[in-house]
Specification:
By secondary structure, this protein is of the alpha+beta class. The protein contains 11 helices and 10 strands. The chain starts with 9 loop residues before the first helix and ends with a helix.
Length: 379
């Protein structure tokens, strides 16, 4: 079911129509096979790049789409309603471009940013480590300064598109303490960089998540983004935007589950009536619809604040928390609506439920979001 969106311009309406057509044609027809086979959709991100969907919220002068965040997020939601793994990878790519756009020098931006925003260079985000997920200040991966570059040594974890991306927004330690972390635009083919086998995940099977081993790999000095020691500031500024991306992905996933449940409830009959006409089930569907609409409203509120240049960190955490909790609830209820069929792989709702779980975990667990929100309130 097409969502009745309130977009700000005719250009945005046209973009959404293009996205919907592309998502149905390129994503909807491929998702089941790739998720079942756990195979990477070769060439698909090239299609998204050529369609202009991998640089939407960045300015046109850098090769981006020049779209406000509220439009970009609704595009992301539309992609997620067809294929969550692809939408999450698109969100991560957009996140990985943020350090260069927000903190890079004009020369660095001119060299790399247009190709990144065009999707010619696909990005990953490399912040987490095995012992440093929510506690980003505990990073141990080191970047040793050399006369003409940096030697990177250590292991990173949980990298979406690991081994497939062309570059990584890499965070490594250049000095002791929380202020000793720096950000690098690391090449994906550096000598001395290798990747672990893809994680055996509950969902999002088509896009790999891996660890990365930096065995003394040397990268050029001009790949430092911002100043040494500015890494956590860069990481956290990007994560506010990334949390909104995940909120939009979660909303699209929940919308897909709701659509499947409503369609089934209008076709299936019991006791001589469509099951949607039974009040108990009708009320369940109503609660699912309210949760999806609420999730969308929270991420749009945060996005509009961002577009106006207003603080949005607390609202980003609220959106991530509300939308991903809603996705978990709505996808679980969708399985219930379909009954025994919902538990089979003949219908996509069991996959939606598996995919929803990770959204409560990455880009900061929902417990961390509650911590962020409560700290804002305490101020």
């Amino acid at each position: 079911m097409a969502v009745d969106r309130m977009l700000p311009t005719q250009e945005a309406e046209d973009l959404m129509a293009l996205t919907r057509e592309l998502a149905e044609k390129e994503l909807g027809k491929r998702v089941e096979a790739h998720e079942a086979e756990e195979s990477y959709p070769e060439g698909l991100f090239d299609v998204l790049g050529r369609s202009g969907l991998l640089g939407l919220p960045y300015p046109e002068e850098h090769g981006g789409g020049g779209q406000p965040y509220e439009v970009y997020l609704q595009v992301l939601e539309e992609l997620a309603s067809q294929w969550a793994a692809v939408a999450v990878a698109t969100s991560v790519h957009t996140l990985a471009c943020h350090p260069l756009y927000a903190f890079g020098t004009p020369a660095q931006q001119e060299r790399w940013l247009p190709r990144m925003l065009a999707g010619e260079l696909l990005g990953g985000y490399s912040l987490s480590e095995a012992q440093a997920g929510s506690d980003a200040a505990a990073l141990s991966c080191k970047a040793e300064r050399l006369p003409d570059g940096y030697r990177i040594t250590g292991t990173k974890a949980w990298i979406t598109h690991g081994g497939k991306a062309d570059f990584y927004a890499l965070f490594a330690r250049t000095a002791p303490g929380s202020r000793g972390i720096s950000c690098f635009l690391a090449p994906g083919t550096a000598e001395g960089l290798s990747f672990g086998r893809p994680e055996r995940k509950m969902g999002l099977h088509a896009v790999p998540t891996t660890s990365a081993m930096w065995d003394g790999a040397v990268i050029d000095a001009d790949r430092l983004i911002g100043a040494e020691g500015q890494g956590l500031e860069i990481a956290f500024s990007a994560l506010d935007c990334g949390r909104l991306g995940i909120a939009a992905c979660a909303t699209g996933l929940a919308q897909a589950a709701l659509d499947t449940a409503v369609a089934y409830a209008n076709e299936r009959t019991t006791f001589g009536r469509k099951i949607v006409d039974h009040q108990g089930l009708g009320f369940l569907l109503a609660d699912m619809a309210a949760a999806v609409d609420s999730a969308r409203a929270t991420y749009l509120d945060a996005a509009r604040r961002r577009d106006l240049g207003r603080p949005f960190s607390r609202q980003a955490s609220v959106a991530k928390l509300v939308a991903t909790d809603a996705a978990m609830k709505v996808t679980t209820d969708a399985v219930q609506v379909l009954g025994g069929y919902g538990y089979t792989r003949d219908f996509p709702v069991e996959r939606y439920m598996r995919e929803a779980k990770i959204m409560q975990i990455f880009e900061g667990t929902n417990q961390i979001q509650r911590l962020v929100i409560s700290r804002h309130l305490a101020r």
